[in-house]
């Protein structure tokens, strides 16, 4: 399995969409938010918070853009593999999610190093806890990427992936980032994991108990996993045919 994992990682790292959506855009976003949003709290703590959010930004791009397109492009290949090898759909989903998580760790590492070099980001246990939580939440976008890849063709995905990406990220720009938002948007954001991630990160930063928000985050992830499995079963004949 590790051979497959290494191959998949190298394949993704050569993808220009991966570099743009998951490495460059989050760093630009980090710089822009730091320049234009003035926090009420300590600046150092705010940079920590931004770094975690930008990890979410990058890992969401990895799932919504890179993964979805890759799965859609390789559907026929995946189907042929199922037909001639013991490589099962379950193993494919597991390996794909595992590869994406490893890539998401890379994204987090790049953001942390950039934050350290440019903004003197404080690397401590609290930051690591928050980053681990952001990586956990990235499972949501991994499952969305798989679902979109199973459902849509490459051309459609390339047309909608960026607007979809920006739409999802707008749902993650919560009041916890120091932004002023209308109440109706806050209510909509409660249907997305970024809302609970941001609340959990904020709670952790003050030493509080974030289990309720982590529980809601987990619920979002589980629901998307169920949807992914349902979509796969619905599209299975197309993929394996």
From TrEMBL:
<feature type="transmembrane region" description="Helical">
    <location>
        <begin position="139"/>
        <end position="165"/>
    </location>
</feature>
<feature type="transmembrane region" description="Helical">
    <location>
        <begin position="18"/>
        <end position="37"/>
    </location>
</feature>
<keyword id="KW-1133">Transmembrane helix</keyword>
<feature type="transmembrane region" description="Helical">
    <location>
        <begin position="49"/>
        <end position="71"/>
    </location>
</feature>
<feature type="transmembrane region" description="Helical">
    <location>
        <begin position="92"/>
        <end position="119"/>
    </location>
</feature>
<dbReference type="GO" id="GO:0140359">
    <property type="term" value="F:ABC-type transporter activity"/>
</dbReference>
<dbReference type="InterPro" id="IPR013525">
    <property type="entry name" value="ABC2_TM"/>
</dbReference>
<feature type="transmembrane region" description="Helical">
    <location>
        <begin position="214"/>
        <end position="234"/>
    </location>
</feature>
<dbReference type="Pfam" id="PF12698">
    <property type="entry name" value="ABC2_membrane_3"/>
</dbReference>
<keyword id="KW-0472">Membrane</keyword>
<dbReference type="GO" id="GO:0016020">
    <property type="term" value="C:membrane"/>
</dbReference>
<feature type="domain" description="ABC-2 type transporter transmembrane">
    <location>
        <begin position="42"/>
        <end position="229"/>
    </location>
</feature>
<protein>
    <submittedName>
        <fullName>ABC transporter permease</fullName>
    </submittedName>
</protein>
<keyword id="KW-0812">Transmembrane</keyword>
């Amino acid at each position: 399995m590790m051979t497959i994992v290494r191959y998949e990682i190298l394949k993704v790292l050569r993808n220009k969409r991966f570099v743009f959506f998951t490495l460059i855009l989050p760093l630009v976003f980090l710089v822009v938010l730091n320049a234009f949003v003035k926090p009420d709290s300590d600046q150092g703590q705010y940079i920590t918070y931004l770094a975690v959010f930008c990890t979410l930004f990058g890992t969401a791009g990895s799932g919504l853009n890179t993964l979805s397109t890759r799965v859609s492009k390789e559907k026929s290949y995946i189907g042929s593999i199922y037909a001639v090898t013991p490589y099962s759909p379950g193993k494919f989903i597991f390996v794909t999610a595992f590869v994406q998580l490893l890539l998401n760790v890379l994204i987090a590492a790049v953001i942390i190093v950039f934050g350290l070099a440019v903004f003197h980001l404080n690397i401590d246990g609290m930051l690591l806890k928050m980053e681990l939580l952001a990586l956990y939440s990235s499972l949501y976008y991994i499952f969305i990427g798989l679902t979109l890849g199973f459902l849509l063709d490459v051309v459609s995905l390339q047309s909608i992936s960026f607007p979809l990406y920006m739409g999802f990220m707008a749902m993650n720009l919560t009041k916890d980032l120091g932004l002023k938002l209308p109440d109706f948007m806050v209510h909509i954001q409660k249907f997305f994991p970024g809302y609970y991630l941001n609340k959990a990160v904020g709670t952790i930063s003050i030493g509080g108990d974030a289990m309720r928000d982590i529980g809601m985050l987990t619920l979002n992830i589980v629901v998307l996993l169920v949807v992914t499995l349902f979509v796969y079963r619905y599209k299975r004949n197309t993929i394996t045919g």
